Amino acid sequence: MNTSSNELYDFGFGTQIRKSPFFDATVRWGAKAFSTYNHMYIPRDFGDPVENFWNLVNDAILCDVAVERQLQIKGPDAFRFVQMMSPRDLSSMQIGQCKYIILTNQDGGILNDPILLKIDTDCYWFSLADSDILLWAQGLAVNNSFDVDICEPDVSPLQLQGPKSREIMVKLFGETINDLRYYWFKPFQLGDIKLLISRTGWSSELGYEIFLLNEFQGDQLYEEIMQTGHKMGLKPGHTSTIRRIEGGMLSYHADMDMNTNPLELGLEKFIDLDKDFDFIGKSALLNIREEGIHRKQVGLEISGEIIIGSNTRFWNIYKDNIVIGIVTSAVYSPRLKKNIALAIIKSNYSMIGTELQVDKGSITVGARVVEKPFYDSKKGIANS
């Protein structure tokens, strides 16, 4: 375990960016570098990212994802307000259920792709990707007559992900954890620590999200999970770029933003355009569907030398010396032994097998359009 926490503080962690309730614990367990996400520090480095990948897919990792801030909508009109924000039909959603949803603006552009949790009849949480949706929701409420309270509650999630996560959770919480279904959550308690636990996660692996309900117990919770799980193969870790690209999982600001619409990304099953409810961006998305999309997200296999780390800028994609799109996320998969990438290109070049060129800055290499996800296309592992 790395205990040299003073070295990290020398980098000048300030008060303008929040630390998670698990910050000190992650430093003790070896966090070497941080990024920012939703105005909060997130651990991005526990050593070799390839080792982190293998820890995830072979054993289990514990990730501090308190940066997934919760936006709470509560009140008599909570359902109507939440439905106004989302193109997905939420009318049959039950208490204790989670749903992946898209939030769109008036032009049909994507503002966020959170997991929605129905906490109670009149209470919902959006578990957010990196963007200021709290401000968006408050702005929507200003000129609308909805009886809702909008806030960020004291909720901070951890992710326990990987094939050994279930046995670790049984050790921590008992056999009743096995009753928890995929994309559902229940309240649990670890000693005096009150939690919500869901069968979700940003890894494409079997896993759980553990929502802490009192920030002052963050250090205690992280340590108890690590001390119990470490003997069973659990390692401290961070969300794996390798595994999420293998699984075709999207990262906001990288693979999509407010200038990208859900139809370009193949997310039609989360967009109920033909239902009789209204939502922000509906007319725009109906027009886009009628006109047809001009761009499409695809998977790519990229030739050439192994990609070290991941791309830190968008790489231009060419066909016959004409720019036809960009690589948004690229990485080398040590399991597939290939460079793989998510890209958005002109739709008339999106046929599987199309040969393209990618400009990596210092060199231009070949690429080929392939099916995505790149691994476990039916998502059977996460749903196991």
What features would you describe in this structure?
With 384 residues, the chain is of the alpha+beta class. The protein has three domains: 5-68 and 154-244, Gyrase A, domain 2 (2-Layer Sandwich), CATH 3.30.1360.120; 70-151, Alpha-Beta Plaits (2-Layer Sandwich); 294-384, Elongation Factor Tu (Ef-tu), domain 3 (Beta Barrel), CATH 2.40.30.110. Helices cover 20% and strands 30% of the residues. It has helices spanning 5-9, 23-28, 49-58, 78-85, 133-142, 165-173, 218-230, 241-246, 282-291; strands at 33-37, 40-45, 60-64, 70-74, 98-100, 103-104, 110-112, 115-120, 123-127, 149-151, 156-161, 185-190, 193-198, 207-212, 234-237, 295-302, 315-319, 322-333, 338-346, 355-359, 364-370. The strands form five sheets. Strands 12-13-14-11-3-15 form a six-stranded mixed β-sheet, sandwiched between helices. Strands 16-19-18-17-20-21 form a six-stranded antiparallel beta barrel. The mean pLDDT is 95.
Strand order of the largest sheet: 12-13-14-11-3-15
CATH class of the largest domain, please? Alpha Beta
Distance between the termini: 32 Å
Helix and strand content put the structural class at alpha+beta
Describe the secondary structure blueprint for this structure.
Layout: H1 5-9, H2 23-28, E1 33-37, E2 40-45, H3 49-58, E3 60-64, E4 70-74, H4 78-85, E5 98-100, E6 103-104, E7 110-112, E8 115-120, E9 123-127, H5 133-142, E10 149-151, E11 156-161, H6 165-173, E12 185-190, E13 193-198, E14 207-212, H7 218-230, E15 234-237, H8 241-246, H9 282-291, E16 295-302, E17 315-319, E18 322-333, E19 338-346, E20 355-359, E21 364-370
Parallel strand pairs: 3-15
Antiparallel strand pairs: 1-2, 3-11, 4-9, 4-10, 5-8, 6-7, 8-9, 11-14, 12-13, 13-14, 16-19, 16-21, 17-18, 17-20, 18-19, 20-21
